[in-house]
Amino acid sequence: MEVRVAVPLRDFYNGRKTEFTIEKQAICSACEGSGSADGHVETCNTCGGRGAVIKRQQLAPGLFQQVQMQCDACAGKGKTIKHPCSVCHGSRVVRESETHELDIEKGMPKGVRITYENEADESPDYVAGDLIVHLVEADPTLGAQDHERTDGTFFRRRGPDLFWREVLSLREAWMGDWTRNVTHLDGHIVKLSRKRGEVVQPNTVEILKEEGMPVWHQQLENNDGLQYGNLHVEYVVVLPDMMDRGMEKEFWSVWDKYRRKSGVVLDRVLGRPEGGVRMPDGEEHDEL
Ligand SMILES: [Zn+2]
Ligand SMILES: [Zn+2]
Questions:
Q1: Enclosing domain of residue 242
Q2: pLDDT of residue 274
Q3: Considering only CA atoms, which of 163, 135, 124, 185 is closest in space to residue 20?
């Protein structure tokens, strides 16, 4: 028996003790699994308690075969109940909700399976199997509370590493002199910044050591200590598509001034032709 439990990335990062509830088949406690209101269970007199009867079947004239079939009177149970239990109506089991504790450990990999021994469906006839919780990562959503609204909520995880995309304006990427406070999954601040004159090329990835996921203790070599993966920050540069008129004029004149002074025409530098190029047609042949 397997159930899927989805929890946010935050819980995988911080670790969390929580609960979950499942509905399962349980042995009826009113009749202690006998199915009988008064506790009396009689042996079926049709089959004598065997649950099966032998029937003679005619296959062809003069040719018989004996077959063993389930007893109809007791549905193969070998026992009959005169006064069925009012809770389970004689079925000996009921559906009920059961709550289990769930201990999400720091850094548990997504998709991990946690086993609860003998907690699956119960039956008076067999030992209950294991209940397996398949722990998956819930899709990120903006919660109502502060701790559910951090940047970290939208970090993406791959193994022990985390990934984040930070947007920079053209001015920031080019001129520098900016700071960003990114709020991590446990609320601490990861400060990103550049001094004046420090250029960030679009799609540059900055790796912040040990700002990734904690490594699950079972994946640590000696099973102790706390280690972290890395946080990969990719910078996306967004250019303005609208500019204040005055600003546009000023930029234009600055660009124009430097283009006259030191600009190059890239096509000319690369030796590209001004018109199209005629490809040889199939009639021509190469001299070998
Ligand atoms: Zn019977
Ligand atoms: Zn019952």
A1: 140-273
A2: 86
A3: 135
Global pTM reads 0.76
CA angle centred on 232, ends 227 and 234, rounded to 5°: 170
Question: Residue 70 falls within a domain, yes or no?
Answer: no
Query: Which ligand sits nearest to residue 87's alpha carbon?
Result: 2
In a domain, 252, yes or no: yes
Instruction: Measure CA 54 to chain center.
Output: 54
Q: How far is CA 149 from the centre of its chain?
A: 19
Q: Which residues contact 3 (CB under 8 A, 6 or more apart)?
A: 20, 22, 131, 132, 133, 134
| Non-local CB neighbours of 245 within 8 Å, separated by 6+ positions | none
For residue 37, the CA-to-ligand 1 centroid distance in Å is: 20
> How far, in Å, from the CA of 28 to the mean position of ligand 2?
5
CA of 122 to the centre of ligand 2 (A): 13
Q: Give per-residue pLDDT as tens, 226-269.
A: 899 999 999 999 998 888 999 999 999 999 999 999 888 888 88
Q: What is the CATH number of the domain that holds 208?
A: 2.60.260.20
Low-confidence ranges of the chain (pLDDT < 50): none
